[in-house]
């Protein structure tokens, strides 16, 4: 199962109330491909998240693909939202993508508790640093 485009998620998200937005995020998290437990290590753990979050980058030609997981359903959905902005795009494009701006329409800081969003900047930084390194 692959993640829908961020614009498609946004089209649906903007018409939902808060409770349904939570459901959409949880469903989005379920669409992440399974991350093998062997990859859930201290080296792949995103720092600063209240829940455990792991991100493992892979590369197919010039395109980046991220495996990710979280032990919290809504956090996993937020992770999927971040990845929807960059998944399977060339590393050079990912390095140039303003992921924070791409996520602004979702207004996550107002929709979710600060616990659920505090690690988002660290995850975005990890994605961008990976893209810079691999472009």
Could you describe the 3D structure shown?
It comes from Sphingomicrobium sediminis. Belongs to the SufE family. Residues 15-129 form the Fe-S metabolism associated domain. It holds the Pfam family SufE. The chain is of the alpha+beta class and 135 residues long. It has a single domain, classed as Sufe protein. Chain: A (Alpha-Beta Complex), CATH 3.90.1010. 50% of the residues lie in helices and 13% in strands. It contains 8 helices and 3 strands. It has helices spanning 6-13, 18-30, 73-84, 91-96, 99-103, 108-111, 114-117, 120-134, and strands at residues 53-60, 63-70, 89-90. The protein has a 3-stranded antiparallel sheet with strand order 1-2-3. Helix 2 (18-30) packs across helix 3 (73-84). The protein is globular. The mean pLDDT is 90.
Features of the shown structure:
Sufe protein. Chain: A; 50% helix; 3-stranded antiparallel β-sheet; 13% strand; alpha+beta
- Widest sheet: strand ordering: 1-2-3
CATH topology category name: Sufe protein. Chain: A
The dominant shape is globular
Unreliable residue stretches? none
Largest sheet: 3 strands, antiparallel
- List the domain count as a whole number: 1
CATH architecture: Alpha-Beta Complex
Family: Belongs to the SufE family.
Protein name: SufE family protein
Domain Fe-S metabolism associated: 15-129
Task: Furnish the topology, listing elements before pairings.
Blueprint: H1 6-13, H2 18-30, E1 53-60, E2 63-70, H3 73-84, E3 89-90, H4 91-96, H5 99-103, H6 108-111, H7 114-117, H8 120-134
Antiparallel strand pairs: 1-2, 2-3
Helix pairs in contact: 2-3
């Amino acid at each position: 199962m692959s993640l829908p485009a961020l614009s498609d998620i946004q089209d649906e998200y903007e018409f939902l109330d808060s409770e349904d937005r939570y459901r959409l995020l949880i469903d989005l998290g379920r669409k992440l491909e399974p991350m093998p437990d062997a990859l859930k290590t201290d080296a792949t753990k995103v720092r600063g998240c209240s829940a455990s979050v792991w991100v493992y980058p892979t590369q197919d030609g010039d395109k980046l693909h991220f495996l990710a997981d979280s032990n919290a359903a809504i956090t996993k959905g937020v992770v999927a939202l971040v990845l929807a902005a960059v998944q399977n795009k060339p590393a050079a494009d990912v390095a140039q993508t303003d992921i924070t701006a791409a996520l602004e329409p979702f207004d996550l800081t107002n929709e979710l508790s600060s616990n659920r969003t505090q690690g988002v900047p660290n995850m975005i930084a990890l994605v961008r640093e990976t893209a810079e390194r691999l472009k």
